[in-house]
């Protein structure tokens, strides 16, 4: 049986690390694409040469074109600029809109049946660009953010309670920005709600730190943004799709009435399997949480309106 094929577009920090994680899993061949000459080729060869030591035999190829990407089962889109000094959020939106649009056009030409996993920011808006450009049904366009935001939330809860992260279950919904919605009502440690385990001010502090989790890393690194946890999250989504695991994971999905939200990509729990987004899970949220989710959706809608302006 031949291996599945995954393309990762953007060979920067997130793309390079995602390609590495996927190659090491050994169930898919990986194609790494970037516009910078030599960068994807060099990283791909370097990853490939780790195979004899680590014991994987996935093929890893780097390229500046799309011929090699033909017939990909999943394409992860990480190509996009991070914000630079003096750039407004809208400037970044337009820059990355152009990048994600041109990349999606090329990807779809060579892999018309693929599933797109969008990573470039601003995440929810870039999902719109990918869906509109590809013309794909909503099942085949999904955004990575919720797993990362939830991983941060789980990390902070575990640190606070001095427990293993493995026993912390939690969820962050909403757009991938300051309005994201870490849900205290859904966060449990060994089955016990964090609202029972922690005083309210500690829960609030953890929620706030989660919302600003990306910024915390940016200010530590000084140049560039997080990529170890983001690439782990992207790889988990690819696992669930290509291995048809049917995991329920928080991802940006195109809502059509779920949670009272229409025609918008927002982070919600979805079932990810071989067909992509196989189900959108509607949780019974507390009223204030639903209000927060709708508020977050409003922030996404504002950005999408700028895209279409
Ligand atoms: N969704 C999330 O949770 C999340 C998390 C982390 C990063 N991000 C976003 O992911 C993106 C990548 O982050 P990074 O840290 O890897 O950035 P990076 O600057 O290290 O890498 C981006 C790469 O994209 C490439 N690129 C630009 N235009 C391209 C094009 N048209 N075709 C192919 N490649 C192109 C660049 O040459 C660069 O190598 C950013 O937009 C970042 O904000 C999202």
The second-level CATH architecture of the largest domain is Alpha-Beta Complex
What is the average of the pLDDT values? 95
Q: Which CATH top level class of the largest domain fits?
A: Alpha Beta
Rg is 19 Å
Widest sheet: strand ordering: 3-2-1-4-5-6
Taking the sheet with the most strands, its summary is:
6 strands, parallel
Q: How many domains, as an integer?
A: 2
Question: Could you walk me through the main structural features you see in this protein, from its secondary elements to its overall organization?
Answer:
The chain is an alpha/beta fold and 309 residues long. Helix content is 45%, strand content 21%. The strands form 4 sheets. It has a 6-stranded parallel sheet, with helices on both faces. A 3-stranded antiparallel sheet has the order 7-10-11. The longest helix is centred in the first third of the chain and has 22 residues, at 89-110. The protein is globular and about 55 Å long. The protein starts with a strand and ends with a helix. The protein binds nicotinamide-adenine-dinucleotide. Nicotinamide-adenine-dinucleotide binds at residues 9-15, 33-36, 39, 78-80, 82, 96, 99, 102-103, 119-121, 123, 144-145, 148, 176, 224-227, 230.
Which terms would index this structure?
alpha/beta; L-2-Hydroxyisocaproate Dehydrogenase, Chain A, domain 2; 2 domains; three-stranded antiparallel sheet; 14 strands; binds nicotinamide-adenine-dinucleotide
Secondary structure blueprint with pairings:
Elements: E1 4-9, H1 13-25, E2 28-33, H2 39-48, H3 51-54, E3 60-63, E4 74-77, H4 89-110, E5 115-118, H5 123-134, E6 141-143, H6 146-161, E7 168-169, E8 172-173, E9 181-182, E10 188-189, E11 192-193, H7 194-197, H8 200-211, H9 213-221, H10 228-242, E12 247-256, E13 262-273, E14 276-280, H11 287-308
Parallel strand pairs: 1-2, 1-4, 2-3, 4-5, 5-6
Antiparallel strand pairs: 7-10, 8-9, 10-11, 12-13, 13-14
Helix pairs in contact: 1-2, 1-10, 4-5, 5-11, 6-8
């Amino acid at each position: 049986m031949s291996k599945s094929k995954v393309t990762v577009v953007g060979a920067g920090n997130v793309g390079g690390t995602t390609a590495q994680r996927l190659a090491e899993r050994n169930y898919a061949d990986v194609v790494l694409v970037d516009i910078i000459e030599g960068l994807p080729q060099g990283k791909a060869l370097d990853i490939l040469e780790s195979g004899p030591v680590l014991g994987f035999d996935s093929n890893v190829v780097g390229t500046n074109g799309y011929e090699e990407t033909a017939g990909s089962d999943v394409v992860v889109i990480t190509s996009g600029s991070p914000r630079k000094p003096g750039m407004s959020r809208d400037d970044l939106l337009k820059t990355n809109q152009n990048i994600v649009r041109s990349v999606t056009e090329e990807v779809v030409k060579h892999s018309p049946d693929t599933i797109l996993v969008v990573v470039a920011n601003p995440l929810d808006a870039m999902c719109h660009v990918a869906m509109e450009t590809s013309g794909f049904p909503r099942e085949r366009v999904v955004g990575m953010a919720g797993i990362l935001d939830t991983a941060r939330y789980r990390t902070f809860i575990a640190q606070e309670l001095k427990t293993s992260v493995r026993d912390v279950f939690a969820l962050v919904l909403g757009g991938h920005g300051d309005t994201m919605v870490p849900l205290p009502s859904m966060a449990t440690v060994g089955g016990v709600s964090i609202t029972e385990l922690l005083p309210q001010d500690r829960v609030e502090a953890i929620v706030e730190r989660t919302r600003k989790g990306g910024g915390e890393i940016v200010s530590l690194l000084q140049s560039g943004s997080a990529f170890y946890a983001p690439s782990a999250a992207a790889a988990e989504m690819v696992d669930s799709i290509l291995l048809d695991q049917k995991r329920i994971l928080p991802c940006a999905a195109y809502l059509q009435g779920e949670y009272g939200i229409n025609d918008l990509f927002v982070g919600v729990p979805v079932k990810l399997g071989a067909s992509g987004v196989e189900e959108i899970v509607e949780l019974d949220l507390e009223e204030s949480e639903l209000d927060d989710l709708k508020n977050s959706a409003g922030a996404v809608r504002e950005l999408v309106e700028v895209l279409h302006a």
